[in-house]
Amino acid sequence: MGIFQICISPLVSEKWKNIQEKFIQRISEDIAYAQRNGLARKDVHNELVARGWFFTNEMYLWEIVRNEYEPLSNKLLRISRLFILKDSIYNFGAQIASI
């Protein structure tokens, strides 16, 4: 597992891993849908992008909970730029690149 583990017990740890995998699966399905409908780049692997999306958000959420590092607005901007601006996974970056 990652740096931040839920290790109360092996059972809880396994349940958390299952929850993570369900989130990743659903994100992957959303990306695949967007790819099929011309809303996302087709040259990237949807499951790998989904894992990156999930773990990026999970890490930032832990930082938000612990009130660490930069302000929340900066974190949200970084995540948004990663996934919706030019050359990111989704194809509508050109329309909002001026943000």
Model description:
With 99 residues, the chain is an all-alpha fold. 65% of the residues lie in helices and 0% in strands. The chain contains 4 helices and no strands. It has helices spanning 10-36, 46-65, 72-84, 93-96. α1 (10-36) crosses α2 (46-65).
Beta fraction of the residues? under 5%
Shape: flat
- Report low-confidence residues grouped into runs of 5 or more: 94-99
In whole angstroms, the N-to-C terminal distance is 36 Å
Q: Helices, strands, pairings?
A:
Blueprint: H1 10-36, H2 46-65, H3 72-84, H4 93-96
Task: Give the gist of this structure.
The protein has 99 residues and is an all-alpha fold.
Summarize this structure as a short list of keywords or feature phrases.
99 residues; mainly alpha; 4 helices
